[in-house]
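Bumping with the actual sequence this time:
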Amino acid sequence: MISVRAKLESESILGGLRRDLALGIVRPPMVYGPRDTAFIPLYKGARWGVFPVPGSPRVRMSIVHVRDLVRGMVGLGEALLNGRAASGSIYYLSGQVADWAEIARAIGRAVGRRQRVIPVPLPLIGLIAVANQLAGRMGLPTSHLVVDKWREARQPGWVCSHARAAADFGYSPQVGLEEGMRTTVAWCREHGLLR
C-alpha cells in the first residue's frame, strides 16, 4: 500500500517535470471494482449481515468504480495530447458521494443480505491499526488497516469534485454505486474470492 507521504512526494517530482512532459496528476477517491482486494473483507462480512464502519456511518465520501477511473485517465491522456488540459494539472476523478450506510446497503443488495451497520469507535480502530502495522514490520500477515488509514478515518468526510475534469475533458462517471457493487461482487464470486 502506498502511503499518503509517498503519493505527495511523487506529485512533487512529477510537478518538476511538467515543462518537459505532457503529464497530469489524478487524485482518485476511494476506488472499488474487479481486481481490488481492499473491499473483499467488506463483501465477506456482508454475507453475515454485519457491516462495521469506522466511527459514524454518516461520514460522506467520494467513491469511484475502477471503470470510471480508467475512463477518466484515458480522457485526461487524450486531453493532454491535444492541448485541452495543461501539463501538471491535478484532477479529482470521483464517482458519486455516499456515506458508509449507503455503501453498506449497496453491498448488502449485491450479496443478497440486509446489513446491520455497526459503528466501531475510532480509538479502537487506531489501536488495531498500530498493532497491524507492527505485525507487518515483523513479517506477519496484515490487512489494509494501517495508521495512515486510521488517520483518514478520523476525518469528517472525504468529498471531492470532478467538475474540473468534466469541464476540461468531459469526464462523467457512468457506473452507479448499486451497479458497481453488484458487478464487483459478481466478479469476486466468479473468481472464488468470497468463500
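The C-alpha cells above came from a reply further down the thread. The chain has a mean pLDDT of 87.
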